[in-house]
Amino acid sequence: MPLSWRRLVGSAVPFPSHHLVQMFYLSRIEHTFRVPPSLLNLPIEEAIKGELEKLFLDKVIADLGLCVSVYDIKSIEGGFIFPSDGAATYTVVFRLIMFRPFVGEIIAAKVKESNATGLRLSIGFFDDIYIPAHLFPKPSSFKPDPNKKDKGTWEWEYDEEPYIIDGIDEIKFRVHNVSYPPIPIEQPKEAKPFAPMVITGSIDEDGLGPVSWWVDAEETKES
Amino acid sequence: MKILEANAGALTNYEVVDFLRSKGAAIDSTRVLAQVSPSEYKVYDYLVQTAACNQTREHINEFVDKCKIYGLAKAEVLNIINIRPTSIIDIYT
Lengths: 223, 93
Fold this sequence. Notes:
The structure holds two protein chains of two kinds. By secondary structure, chain A is mainly beta.
């Protein structure tokens, strides 16, 4: 069932062209830390790189994003050993590759969970991506699964035809918001594990949602 | 920890894949020998499914040169490199 375009008006997403916007950025950081004495036999850059990876890899830095990799080391200073410490302390300036999608970016992800509040998507290395119910194309409805209590499928009704999000193909979504909730002091027992970085996405536009919804739209244009 | 420069440069997906590959990431079974951590591997696996995996530096340089005629903003060129639109609908979004 080919979909024709609902809103063909005008301009593409306005890119803020005065600065670059991308999914991955480099961030330059300075940090002072100890290198344990057990690593003294390694060449200095290797030991420092190893420690940096342990400290930052796969961790979220507020407002900078998720650290993906240590790109390079710009400078190493210090090497002093403080009294009663066996380890040397270094001040290192280095660059990290950060994953920080910008608002308005289009990303393709897989469905991880589908429940009454919306969808949860994953891109492998990051899975706190939520599409809340109000950012679905309208009208959409949720059909709860008779077997599982909270799960179910979402369905979009357009032109009298139902379009289902069945979790088989990838979902293209537009980044609506990236937030870094503060670390909670205490959490109730059944609460979800704390997510330091949460991406909220929208699929309420032409071209977004499961890839299969739009495959036929090309054919209608040509005929 | 001091943040000296929050945005020291944007990277195309291709550059991230290239960087991870130069560290030794690969799709086949030699991956266990590389010094690439599991979380970096997840990023590599995701990027390999996107347009970035088939690009080379020459292709990208060629593309940027050809785009100069159109006067696109740098951000738009970078995004086109990343998404590699194959249909009208991709360019629209």
